[in-house]
Amino acid sequence: MSKQPTPAKNLSIWDDARKMIEKARRDGVETVWDRFEQQQPGCKFCELGLTCKNCNMGPCRISIKENGKMQRGVCGADGDVIVARNFGRFVAGGSVGHSDHGRDLIEVLEAITEGAAPDYKITDEEKLRNVSADLGIPIEGRAPLAIAKDLVDACFSDFGSRKKELGFVSRVPE
Ligand code: SF4
């Protein structure tokens, strides 16, 4: 007997989303929820982060052997290395994806400073001053546009930079 799909009321807290899920089911349109159910049960190794396919000697998966010792990947990486390395790659991949949005914002700010984006303006001068000060840009007695120009330069120089650290590291909490 085929398994009944999870009721739409259990898949979203929103009425409109539930209605869309029900309509998709009536119309035979596959959604993320259908694919999720098809993938169950999830791979236990993957859920623990104990799989690796970072090179062509793998893919590898790590379990505890009968003698209680932890298996290693072909390259010798143990479970701790694989979990830490996967986590580092998740963070790096996510950061790279979002850094492009950051660059878009710098481009808009640059256009504002050049008078090339008349539909945009600096609405939060306090934030401009705070961020600029954190990046070591002088703010005392200076006009917002002058500060913004220096901020644009400081931010652009963090992309494709040969510097030893990124400016925004100064804003990371301890
Ligand atoms: S554990 Fe090592 S050998 Fe296995 S896929 Fe990852 S990097 Fe390659």
Can you tag this structure with a few keywords?
single chain, 174 residues, mainly alpha, two-stranded antiparallel sheet, 47% helix, binds iron/sulfur cluster
Question: Could you characterize what this model shows?
Answer:
Helix 5 (125-134) packs across helix 6. The chain has a domain at 1-40. The mean pLDDT is 91. It has helices at 15-27, 32-38, 44-47, 79-113, 125-134, 144-156, and strands spanning 51-52, 60-61. The chain has a two-stranded antiparallel sheet. The protein is flat and about 70 Å long. Helix content is 47%, strand content 2%. The chain is mainly alpha-helical. The termini are far apart. The structure holds iron/sulfur cluster. Residues 52-55, 57-60, 73-75, 77, 82 line the site of iron/sulfur cluster (SF4).
Cα gyration radius (Å): 25 Å
The major β-sheet equals: 2 strands, antiparallel
Look at the helices and sheets and give the structural class: mainly alpha
Number of strands: 2
Q: Approximately what portion of the residues adopt beta-strand conformation?
A: under 5%
End-to-end C-alpha gap? 55 Å
What small molecules are bound in this structure?
iron/sulfur cluster
Helix content: 40-55%
Q: What is the string of SSEs from the N terminus onward?
A: HHHEEHHH
* Oligomerization category of the chains in this entry: single chain
**What's the total helix number?**
6
Reading side by side through the largest sheet, how are the strands ordered? 1-2
Low-confidence stretches: none
From the spread of the alpha carbons, the general shape counts as flat
